[in-house]
Specification:
The chain has 463 residues and is mainly alpha-helical. The chain has 14 helices and no strands. The chain is globular and about 70 Å long.
């Protein structure tokens, strides 16, 4: 039996709250740290990188914890709710300047808060995406279902990119630091509300899964099994490469954009125009993805998804020299960048579910949360690498906050914003073409084997 309208969109709305939380950190935390709090850009970049090195251990561990969880509410929903509540509280403190702390004390405070934020986001994000494969049973259903949470997520990024700065000014009444603090509180409340809608209205199918396999042995995920999955699941390796490349492009261009428009273009008011049209285009890309998937091969769709962002970035570069204040060209470059991004989001969400199915056929157990933990880890790793690259890059090119930049600094900013993401986009397409094989007849064979395994398991349970 398929999901009802209420269940599909209750699941999707959960992505709205959690991605509002992630977007405010991704878009604004670095410039909040450097320009509002006064932390050194090199320190901030290194902090983000160190936090993600910890996530390399923490995220797969959380995946194993979720896979080994057994409650009457299922194994996903309890962690989604617990993680959301804690993460919302931490978010509020992350954007709050504590009274009486200065210099190194602020470095320590924000280091602790940022690492805690990353850990608690993992706590809810991994089980959220781990639920998706169990909500759809056929490729057609999966293509449609995967788009819904991504549309809500893209809407969150659209809202934060298009209206975030305006909200900061509105809440701050002339005090930017206060504006960020109040915006974070609003997002924290929305985050909790949308998650409650998800956990109340969406069935957790793991409630009905037997705790033992056909031999009577308790199923679970050990560290040894997790390492085996990582080493031997070749399609997981390809997925990691593709998703890492996509997120690096998104995080570098997204994190650098506010600096680019403020200092290179010289008009920060073009930033909301760029992000708003980009966000709308990403949603359009997600809506079009299931349609394109019916008339084009997976490889062709993914090729288009990689080609459009590269064109958009080049157009942004050209516009910056010829007509830097032209809102139409800025909007068009954002549309091309994120239309391709929408296709990529749809494609990689389907890839995640396909890789989980492939792993079940290959290893005999689903291990949704261990595999899904890589999505969370890759998003945060890309965010950290992007922030580190931006922080170190700005330091190298001589960036000084709140003043006019030199010609060398502006050239360096163009390299970070345009050239590096374009190269990574091409690398992502090469990885996909060379390694991904879960399409066509081969994928159909995997689905048939999986259905046969599930029928056999149900038969064994009934005995």
């Amino acid at each position: 039996m398929g999901l009802s309208f209420k269940e599909r969109y209750s699941f999707g709305i959960g992505a709205l709250g959690k991605d509002l939380c992630y977007a405010v950190v991704s878009y604004y935390l670095m410039i909040y740290f450097t320009d509002s709090i006064g932390l050194a850009s090199l320190f901030v970049g290194n902090l983000f990188l160190v936090a993600r090195l910890w996530d390399a251990i923490n995220d797969p561990m959380m995946g194993m914890i979720v896979d080994n969880t057994r409650t009457k509410w299922g194994k996903f929903r309890p962690w989604i709710l617990i993680g959301t509540v804690i993460n919302a509280v931490v978010l509020a403190f992350l954007f709050k300047k504590p009274a009486g702390l200065e210099g190194g004390q602020l470095n320590v405070y924000y280091s602790v808060m940022y690492i805690l934020w990353g850990m608690t986001y993992t706590m809810m994000d991994i089980p959220y995406w781990s639920m998706l494969p169990s909500l759809s049973k056929t490729p057609e259903e999966r293509n449609k279902m995967s788009v819904i949470p991504r549309i809500f997520a893209s809407l969150a990024w659209l809202i934060m990119g298009g209206f975030g700065l305006a909200a900061v000014k509105f809440f701050g009444k002339g005090n930017v630091t206060t504006g960020y603090e109040k915006l974070a509180l609003v997002i924290a409340v929305v985050f909790v509300i949308t998650t409650i809608i998800t956990v109340v209205n969406v069935r957790d199918s793991s409630c009905n899964v037997s705790k033992t396999d056909k031999t009577g042995k308790k199923e679970g995920t050990s560290i040894k099994k997790a390492i085996k999955i990582i080493k031997e699941n070749d399609q997981l390796t390809v997925y990691i490469g593709v998703v890492l490349a996509y997120n690096l492009v998104a995080q570098i261009s997204g994190g650098m954009a506010i600096y680019y428009f403020t200092y290179v273009v010289g008009n920060e008011n073009l930033y909301p125009i760029f992000t708003a049209f980009a966000g709308l285009a990403e949603i359009a890309g997600l809506i079009l993805f299931p349609i394109l998937s019916k008339i084009m091969s997976k490889k062709a769709v993914f090729g288009l998804a990689c080609f459009l962002p590269a064109v958009g970035l080049v157009l942004l570069l050209i516009a910056g020299f010829i007509l830097p204040q032209n809102a139409f060209l800025v909007a068009l470059s954002g549309i091309l960048l994120k239309l391709g991004s929408g296709f990529t989001l749809g494609a990689t969400t389907v890839m995640l579910a396909d890789v989980i199915d492939y792993g079940q056929v290959k290893f005999g157990t689903r291990n949704e949360s261990v595999i899904a933990s890589f999505q969370t880890l890759l998003v945060k790793t890309a965010s950290a690498v992007a922030a580190w690259l931006i922080g170190v890059g700005l330091t190298i090119v001589g960036y000084v906050p709140n003043v006019a930049q030199t010609g060398t600094t502006l050239f360096g900013m163009r390299i970070i914003m345009i050239a590096i993401p374009s190269v990574i986009t091409i690398l992502g397409f090469i990885i996909y073409c060379k390694g991904y094989k879960l399409h066509g007849e081969y994928q159909q064979k995997i689905m048939e084997q999986l259905n046969e395994m599930n029928k056999q398991k149900e038969a064994n349970i009934s005995l």
